[in-house]
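re the bet — no i am not wrong, look at it urself. input seq straight from the record:
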Amino acid sequence: STIMPASRLDIAFVPFGTSTHSQEFSDAGTTEAAYKAIKVSSFALAATAYDVMTNVELAKNIKDEHTRLSS
């Protein structure tokens, strides 16, 4: 984003190359692999947020880099 730093995390729970707009993809969303992928990725996002909120130097570095790259 040009307004604030942002990131995106993709999680894998279907075979590589599976179309996102397919019945196979939809069916895979109810599997144990999908639940595990969501659990792991949500932990990663929460841990990242914790790091940024509790580490002043890290937050400053992120802000400085974002300012530099979006100028």
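see?? The helical segments are 23-28, 32-54, 56-70. told u. also The chain has a mean pLDDT of 91. so pay up
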